[in-house]
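Input structure tokens:
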């Protein structure tokens, strides 16, 4: 029962993270680009960060726990194992997400570089969707 509860919390956090980035990419970013107005992104981020960043932290924590259950010997890097393959791919996406976030936070946002930030936003959104796809694939028996 504990594992199922943690998986549910993980899915809920993924919904917040991915949904927020879809709203940003599809609903907010086009208007900011059309108006060339960085403040539109800042306004969204100021409302999303208080729930988005905790959701990301919850994803990392619950994902780490789920990893210990499904792939206790993940560091064997056995790509033939169904869960190991999916989880390693998810960790790879997490590293890319963190690199993009750090780059955006410390370089693009202080410069108010809207066009490069828009590329980051789209990439993080695509990665968030890939996270969901990989989670679905792992739980459904695999599409990978």
């Amino acid at each position: 029962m504990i594992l199922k509860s943690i998986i549910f919390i993980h899915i809920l956090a993924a919904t917040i993270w991915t949904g927020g980035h879809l709203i940003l990419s599809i609903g907010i970013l086009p208007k900011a680009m059309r108006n060339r107005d960085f403040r539109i992104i800042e306004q969204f981020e100021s409302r999303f960060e208080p729930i988005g960043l905790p959701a990301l932290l919850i994803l990392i924590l619950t994902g780490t726990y789920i990893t210990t259950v499904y792939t206790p010997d993940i560091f064997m890097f056995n790509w033939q194992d169904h869960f190991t393959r999916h989880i390693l791919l998810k960790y790879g996406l997490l590293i890319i997400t963190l690199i993009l976030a750090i780059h955006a936070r410390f370089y693009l946002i202080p410069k108010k570089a809207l066009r490069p930030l828009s590329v980051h936003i789209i990439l993080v959104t695509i990665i968030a969707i890939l996270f969901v796809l990989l989670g679905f694939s792992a739980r459904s028996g695999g599409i990978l």
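Residues 2-67+79-140 form one domain. The longest helix spans residues 2-35.
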